[in-house]
Specification:
CATH architecture: 3-Layer(aba) Sandwich
Structural class: alpha/beta
Bound molecules: thymidine-5'-phosphate
Shape: globular
Number of strands: 5
Strand order of the largest sheet: 2-3-1-4-5
Number of helices: 7
Distance between the termini: 15 Å
Helix content: 40-55%
CATH superfamily: P-loop containing nucleotide triphosphate hydrolases
Radius of gyration: 16 Å
Length: 202
């Protein structure tokens, strides 16, 4: 039996990484084997591409291709083997991040991304959880969220465009999306997450 492919999306600092670990622990409690991965990253070469992407100013089309290159590495070496072995895979970001950041916020052509996506024919997630956070939420002003990644420091208007792009994707693909209100107190967020996982995956 093939595992289930679950992706998490959201703006920088939206709590995706904590939510991914929460979901992995929840699935393990249900007796599932789980592989947790992230994009960019998740395989040795993809992690090298991540360091490059997070520390360098890269021309937007070249940046897009590097995100996609890291994705192919992660899928081939980590995601696909785990799914084939029957493990559930939790991936922190996937194609929808490319649509939100490179198309929605940086203004690249959606057709370019869609052409790459259909030509590469990578697995589609069966569930995508959007951690929806207002970019002006006080949590985002904590200094530990502002490291020196140029991608994280891209400004309020940029983060707003990304949030809108994710919300738009969640409306267009309502069958695979669950939107979690990440503005709520932590306990409420984890309660909503647990309810969503149990409804969609049990
Ligand atoms: P992370 O901090 O959530 O791991 O993501 C790293 C950064 O990479 C984040 O600012 C979003 C960005 N990113 C893109 O711009 N396009 C993509 O396709 C992916 C996967 C991430």
């Amino acid at each position: 039996m093939s595992g289930r492919f679950i992706t998490f999306e959201g703006i920088d600092g939206s709590g995706k990484t904590t939510a991914c670990s929460f979901a992995a622990a929840w699935l393990r409690k249900q007796g599932r084997s789980v592989e947790q991965t992230r994009e960019p990253g998740g395989s040795p070469t993809a992690e090298e591409l991540r360091s490059l992407l997070l520390k360098s100013q890269i021309e937007p089309r070249a940046e897009l291709l590097l995100f996609v290159a890291a994705r192919v590495e992660n899928i081939v070496h980590t995601v696909a083997p785990a799914l084939a072995a029957g493990c559930d895979v939790i991936c922190d970001r996937y194609w929808d991040s490319t649509l939100a950041y490179q198309v929605g916020a940086r203004g690249l052509d959606a057709g370019l991304v869609e052409n790459l996506r259909s030509a590469l024919d990578l697995p589609e997630p069966e569930l995508t959880i959007l951690m929806d956070l207002d970019p002006q939420h006080p949590r985002l002003s904590q200094p530990d969220l502002l490291d020196d990644d140029h991608l994280d420091n891209a400004g309020l208007a940029f983060q707003r465009r990304i949030r809108e792009a994710f919300l738009d994707l969640s409306r267009r693909h309502a069958e695979r999306y669950v939107v979690i209100d990440a503005n709520a107190p932590l306990k409420q967020v984890s309660g909503c997450l647990e309810a969503a996982l149990s409804e969609r995956l049990s």
